[in-house]
Specification:
10-stranded mixed beta sheet; D-Maltodextrin-Binding Protein, domain 2; alpha/beta; 307 residues; two-stranded antiparallel ribbon
């Protein structure tokens, strides 16, 4: 059977328009071309689909039965073609994302490695930015999506939380507090605390959470980035309060993390997407991997209850 897509589209257009002339205008074809396609379709099927007159056309009984089938065939073919195009698009191209430093350093590489195994021809550009910078990059379209924190979202950006990370105490394994299962904020009095600057979103979260409890840490050192804070701790200059995500998942040769309680302070981490914009196929594939990875369980030392 030699029925082609043009014949099916023409039949559906004529049936929906109720005449050859309006269908010809919709399809940008001449009336003779419309008639030839319909005649070829009817000849191939061996039945009449339309009753033609000088002013209008009407569907025969067979035509009325065939119309929903023709529509379904066209819809299924279009969906299949879109799926093929999307699959092809996933396998090439460029994905640009913006990411806060903690996720970029410790979390993102493992996900990108899994993504590269599935889509080796897709290039990835990762923008290492502050929480506000991530939101701005997504809002302006500089990045297709972002990995950031709650509270730094732009009006044009949707925040989709994926995990909550507690703030923990980071110290050297030979520090006295490393022998504790849980550390309380009150026990940090007299310690040389390493924190981040007031411009950091992490500092804002801590200040807002601790103020109702009357806790105002005396930060001895302030750094712009969490990685710098951890470097000072490694050097033995003090102890730091950082999100658990900032520390490696695997055991570190120098650093250990201990839960902080009374109060416990959490930070929501998740995806930032521009409202009304749809990431491309390759970006959506990467987002799916990130969602699975970011929802993974936290390390055991971040889940221990109070002692």
């Amino acid at each position: 059977m030699a029925i082609d897509l043009d014949q099916l589209r023409t039949f559906v257009a004529v049936a929906e328009a109720g005449g050859l002339t309006p269908a010809a205008e919709t399809l940008h074809l001449s009336l003779p071309a419309i008639s030839r396609r319909l005649s070829a379709l009817e000849e191939e099927l061996g039945v009449a689909l339309l009753l033609r007159s000088t002013r209008r056309v009407a569907l025969t009984q067979t035509g009325r039965e065939f119309l929903p089938r023709a529509r379904r065939l066209l819809d299924e073919l279009e969906e299949s073609l879109l799926g093929i195009r999307e699959t092809a698009a996933q396998r090439r191209g460029l994905v640009t994302l913006a990411c806060i430093p903690t996720a970029a350093y410790y979390f993102l590489p493992a996900t990108l490695a899994a993504f590269a195994r599935r889509f080796p021809a897709v290039r990835v550009r990762a923008m290492d930015l502050s929480a506000e910078g991530v939101a701005d990059a997504v809002a302006t379209g500089a990045a297709e999506f972002g990995i950031g924190m709650e509270g730094a979202a732009h009006a044009q950006v949707e925040f989709r939380p994926l995990r909550r990370d507690p703030f923990v105490l980071a110290c050297r394994h030979d520090h006295p507090l490393a022998r504790r299962r849980v550390v309380r904020w009150a026990e940090l009095d007299g310690q040389r605390l390493v924190g981040v600057s007031r411009r950091s979103g992490n500092r804002l979260i801590l200040d807002r959470a601790l103020a109702p409890h009357g806790i105002r840490p005396a930060w001895h050192y302030e750094a712009e980035h969490l990685s710098t804070s951890l470097g000072l701790v490694e050097a033995g200059l003090g102890v730091a309060v950082v999100p658990r995500l900032a520390l490696p998942r695997d055991p570190h040769p120098v650093l250990v993390a201990r839960p902080l309680r009374d109060p416990q302070v959490d930070r929501a981490t998740g995806l930032l997407l521009k409202r009304g914009a749809e990431p491309g196929p390759a970006a959506r594939a990467l987002i799916e991997l990130l969602e699975r990875g970011m929802r993974a369980a936290l390390p055991a030392d971040a889940r221990r209850g109070a002692a």
